[in-house]
Amino acid sequence: MAKPILVTGGTGDLGREVVRLLLDDGVAVRVMSRRPRPPEVSHEWARCDLRTGEGLAEAVDGVSAIVHCASTLGRGDEQVTRNLVEAARRAGSPHLVYISIVGIDVIRFFYYDEKLASEKVIEESGLPWTVLRATQFHELVARASAVQRWLPVTFMPSGFRFQPVSTGDVAARLVALACGEPSGRVPDLGGPEVRTARDLARAYQRSVGRRKPIVPLWLPGKASRAFRAGGNLTPGNATGVGTFEEFLETRV
């Protein structure tokens, strides 16, 4: 029997898509989650807490690769990744594939700092590894407008541009990487278009049948300067195909 691929964060937006694509390809999958296994799920399930390590040894046992999609959103990613790496080493050194973010080495922001530190942990782990950096997901960009739906205006950061990418495009790349040989740091993955924050907010409003003023909000600090300089963009790697409007048509 083929060894399964473990997907951490397998119940999140990206993790669910990775799991779906792997199953569609006939690949054995084990989902890692803090949640109990739903009754409708037939594939392997590992209930685990990456922070405490509870259930971690069992989760990584006998897997061929790990697609690390779990995140604490900057509240301990480095330690969580270190826990995973140490358990993976004891389990026989499976291929570790990590999803990271474009620009974390030039944008000084607490969440990005945690992701960059996690990359270093993986690179120095002694495990066979692959790291993919992607731009912001469509879901995140849409959420920035959605959370302001009850306000009379929508605030968007002045001078910011984004290159939103489909979770499906990112998941497909992760699946290909996990089923291939360890490749180290691979080319970044960006969405097909670089758009201003204002333009994306207007597209969201159109999709939900609203129209209200979009107010530019000047954000101070080094991180904001790096965003305005395009540190979060990778126009030379605009290999994602799903557009923001296509996402809005199907998800909003």
Automatic annotation (TrEMBL):
<dbReference type="GO" id="GO:0044877">
    <property type="term" value="F:protein-containing complex binding"/>
</dbReference>
<dbReference type="InterPro" id="IPR016040">
    <property type="entry name" value="NAD(P)-bd_dom"/>
</dbReference>
<dbReference type="InterPro" id="IPR051207">
    <property type="entry name" value="ComplexI_NDUFA9_subunit"/>
</dbReference>
<dbReference type="InterPro" id="IPR036291">
    <property type="entry name" value="NAD(P)-bd_dom_sf"/>
</dbReference>
<feature type="domain" description="NAD(P)-binding">
    <location>
        <begin position="9"/>
        <end position="139"/>
    </location>
</feature>
<protein>
    <submittedName>
        <fullName>NmrA family transcriptional regulator</fullName>
    </submittedName>
</protein>
<dbReference type="Pfam" id="PF13460">
    <property type="entry name" value="NAD_binding_10"/>
</dbReference>
